[in-house]
Design goal:
Largest sheet: 10 strands, mixed
CATH topology of the largest domain: Rossmann fold
Oligomer: single chain
Helix content: 25-40%
CATH superfamily of the largest domain: P-loop containing nucleotide triphosphate hydrolases
Number of domains: 2
Strand content: 15-25%
CATH class of the largest domain: Alpha Beta
Bound molecules: iron/sulfur cluster
Shape: elongated
Number of strands: 12
CATH architecture of the largest domain: 3-Layer(aba) Sandwich
Length: about 300
């Protein structure tokens, strides 16, 4: 695949706990097994745990700074222009006084810093979170982590995407495949990752909750005009698989494959060894292994990839 931009695959899902990271990690491992150069990005920045499923650790910590305006009292003429133009209403201005920053409302857009006629606003920064990078089992892993007590998780996702865009621009052949693992839900962090991907794969489970949240995430994927196929995890749960598949098909929701409840998958999850890792010792004729293999073959056909 040299000379081409990497294929970007977004693993997502409207609901927490459906197995997004399990699928992201094993799909990344299957591409790596076939000789593809794979980058896995963990964008579930409030709960990043992909490295645990790879039995790895968080390395090469890099701070993600967040701009905050700092007022120079000597230079500020108390004109109020900055506060009047802050669309987030993060600056409280009372006549003839220095504006007061309400930091929880500040988006870090720097508009006040740019427009102050007296250059009375200085750039200050706080730590929003961190990005880690690591090489594990032949995969490159980037992990974003939001600092506890901070709320602007999208800032960490944006920093991950900037890193990815830099790699694609400056080292276009470095990776063949990029796997994005999103947070649960259909919010801004998830939207940013779906939007940059070529295809999206929501992971669901055969329950009413699973279906409701699946429909939300598919609505978002459709709004962004992206291709999507679904993986049904724990498909053998209480025997609802056939009914669930029928319901999805009736709503024209395409299915990439399904993964049954399987002891090897549970073991691999507990031990941090991906079931699809070469020589991991799991039963290659077992239901879990075969299910992931089937998904991988369907995925390659969908992406029109040949090993
Ligand atoms: S725009 Fe500049 S000078 Fe005017 S109130 Fe804001 S910081 Fe002070
Ligand atoms: S950085 Fe943007 S959001 Fe924050 S106070 Fe300045 S103008 Fe308002």
């Amino acid at each position: 695949m040299t000379g081409m931009k990497p294929k970007i695959i977004c693993i997502t899902g409207g609901k927490g706990g459906t197995g997004k990271t399990l699928c992201a990690v094993n799909i990344a491992v299957m591409f790596k097994n076939e000789g593809y150069k794979v980058l896995l990005i963990d964008g579930d920045v409030e709960n990043p745990n992909s490295y645990l499923l790879l039995n790895g650790s968080l390395e090469n910590k890099r701070e993600v700074p967040f701009f905050m305006p700092k007022f120079n009292e000597d230079k500020c003429t108390r004109c109020g222009i900055c506060a009047q133009n802050c669309i987030n209403h993060a600056l409280l201005y009372i006549d003839d006084s220095i504006p007061i920053l309400m930091s929880s409302l500040c988006s870090g857009c720097k508009l006040c810093y740019k427009i102050c006629p007296e250059k009375a606003i200085e750039a200050d920064f706080k730590t929003l979170g961190w990005i880690y990078s690591n090489e594990i089992h032949g995969l490159t892993l980037y992990v974003g982590e939001l600092k506890p007590s901070e709320a602007r998780s999208a800032g960490i996702v944006e920093a991950l995407l900037e890193t990815l865009k830099d790699i694609i621009k400056n080292q276009p052949n470095k990776f063949d495949i990029v796997i994005l693992d999103t947070a649960p839900g259909a919010h801004c962090d998830v939207e940013l990752l779906i939007d940059i991907a070529d295809v999206s794969i929501p992971i669901t489970e055969p329950t009413k909750f699973g279906k409701l949240d699946l429909k939300r995430i598919i609505e978002l994927i459709n709004l962004l005009g992206k291709d999507c196929k679904v993986i049904i995890n724990r498909s053998s749960l209480l025997g609802f698989k056939d009914q669930f598949i029928k319901e999805l098909q009736e709503e024209d929701i395409e299915i990439l494959g399904d993964i049954p409840l399987d002891a090897d998958i549970v073991n691999s999850y507990c031990q941090g060894t991906p079931i699809m890792e070469k020589n991991s010792g799991y039963d290659i004729k077992g239901a879990g292994f075969l299910a992931f293999n089937n998904i991988f073959e369907n995925l390659k056909k969908w992406l029109e990839l040949k090993a």
